[in-house]
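Hey, I was hoping to borrow your eyes for a little while. I've been staring at a protein lately and its backbone has me curious. You're getting the sequence in one-letter code plus the fold written as tokens. Would you mind checking whether the tokens look sensible for this chain? Here's the protein in full, and shout if anything looks odd to you:
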Amino acid sequence: MIDLTDLAAQKLQGILQEDGKANAALRIRVEQGHHGRFQYLLSLEEEPGDGDQAIHANGIRIVVDTESAPLLEGSEIDYVEGLMRSGFVITNPNELQDTGGCACGGQCDCGGH
């Protein structure tokens, strides 16, 4: 379902230890953004909710709600470090790729471009 790179797993383990939440899970929620793009909400939770799917990836427990689960199928979570920014990056094959146009059908005043 979801792959977690070694570096992302190491960073998450460090965050869990630092926050004193060694047994917490990473919750991932997907919301539909503009132009067919997804927005990802990440948080730490001690217990999954009713109906959540729980998986283990690279030693990290991940929980996903039923609406987000199919949208995350085949995704990879990585951690990138750079001069301008560092953070978690989700590569998702289910997300519309940026083709230079908008997939909204003109509903965002872009004229469908």
Q: What stands out?
A: The chain has one domain: 2-91. The first helix runs from residue 6 to 18. The mean pLDDT is 87. The longest strand covers residues 25-32.
